[in-house]
Amino acid sequence: MKLLGLEFYKCRRRKVVLVCAAVLAAELLWFGAYLARQDPEDLLHGWMLLFYNLAMIDAIILPISVATLASRNCELEHKGASLKLLETMVTPGRLYLAKLSWGALVLAALLIIRSALFLGMGLWAGFVGAAPLGRFGVFTLLSWAVSMMIYGLQQGLSLRFANQAVALVCGIFGSFIGIMSMLFPPSLVRCVPWGYYGLMALARMEWDPDTRFTQFFWQWPQPLDLVLLALWAVLFFIVGRTLFVRKEV
What pTM was computed for the model? Predict the structure, then answer.
């Protein structure tokens, strides 16, 4: 707990709150602009429309956002002899876990606030039917799980390379491939870590080319996809931690 507290103390001037606020503003503006272009009949399935678009927005915005948060948390350790000094007081493994816990709490707070804002937007827009609070909870948990899997990858890169451009370029690539993967077949998406934002979406869309009618429907994630998500997360954690522990300081 002391190490985790020190991580928060260290990041108090790293503009992490500003980064999170920018993420929330970008997502709200994106969906707000989309919502303003919809006809009243399109909003009959407003809650499904919201969840479907949230998954798409997450696939674009969250990979680079997660990369930025990991970089803001890890880049100071590369300056001077910070890592060498830290490792005289604590083992590399405990330091790595503290940083991962910091990321987990920051992402949890960000996504909970995000879900509350979008819930409020749906209520304000007058979407038909009761607010699906349970689905908001599940979607928030799934978004957090995917983001933590990506955070494990990004933290490993940010601690391994002093030049943070490596980690940020990976995040930019993740944002690009994340949205592109929504066009891939599920078997291929499962091989793309950033594609799990779309793969875990609770609302799906089908478009009939003959009738030109778009249908939205609810769908829970497949158990196989949940298992693969956990395996990706474990893989990134083990590899990232191993490389950091063996890193020459």
Answer: 0.90
